């Protein structure tokens, strides 16, 4: 695969698959994943506190509650 680094086009076939920068790239990839994971958790928490929750959370906030079952029909008919 071809990629660009510092304005130069490089070919991955010329690099060893076990280069030292692979370890640091892997570390920073994991670190960025963890940061993004917790950012999304915190953003969801902030949205709920501000009242931006999804519609299923706020459907019955007016105190009425969910609708009950319809009345049963008595008799044959």
Would you kindly provide a written description of the structure presented here, covering whatever features stand out?
The model has no long low-confidence stretch (mean pLDDT 75). The protein is 39% helix and 10% strand. The longest helix is centred in the middle third of the chain and has 30 residues, at 21-50. Strand 1 (2-5) and strand 2 (8-11) form a beta hairpin. It is an alpha+beta fold and 77 residues long. It has 1 helix and 2 strands, in the order ββα. The protein has one helix spanning 21-50; strands spanning 2-5, 8-11. Its main location: membrane. It is found in: Membrane. It holds the Pfam family SelK_SelG.
Can you tell me the residue ranges where pLDDT is under 50 for at least 5 consecutive residues? none
First and last CA, distance: 74 Å
| Helical content band | 25-40%
Query: What characterizes the major β-sheet?
Result: 2 strands, antiparallel
Form type: elongated
- Tell me the β content: 5-15%
Cα-based radius of gyration, to the nearest Å: 28 Å
Enumerate how many helices there are, as a single number: 1
Written as H for each helix and E for each strand, in order along the chain, the element string is EEH
Question: How do the strands of the widest beta sheet line up side by side?
Answer: 1-2
The average pLDDT score comes to: 75
Q: State the secondary-structure class.
A: alpha+beta
DSSP strand count: 2
Q: What is the topological layout?
A:
Layout: E1 2-5, E2 8-11, H1 21-50
Antiparallel strand pairs: 1-2
Considering the chains and any ligands shown, give keywords for the structure.
2 strands; alpha+beta; 77 residues
